[in-house]
Amino acid sequence: MPLNHHDQVNLLKDILTNHQTDCCGSVSECEQLERLVKSLMVNNNLDSNVKPILQEIYNYSQNGKYSADLDEHILSNQTNLSSWVDDIGQFS
To answer: Which Pfam families does the entry mention (predicted)?
Structure first.
């Protein structure tokens, strides 16, 4: 069953929040973030102001996926994670 826009945004926020609170994550979570962002980027109902944020999240997930130390990557992005969760919450 495909996820609707609202479900995708909630899942995106959940993964980012987990990364923020746990300061750790997995490559599969980074891959899931990429898939969610790609799906949301092609959604015409999405507020255009959120697209730059989604691009930042996509870059974060790409860098995390290929990072030698994913936990350190997540730790170094704590401020971004907090900001993204707050920003996405305003547009969901």
So the answer is: YtzH
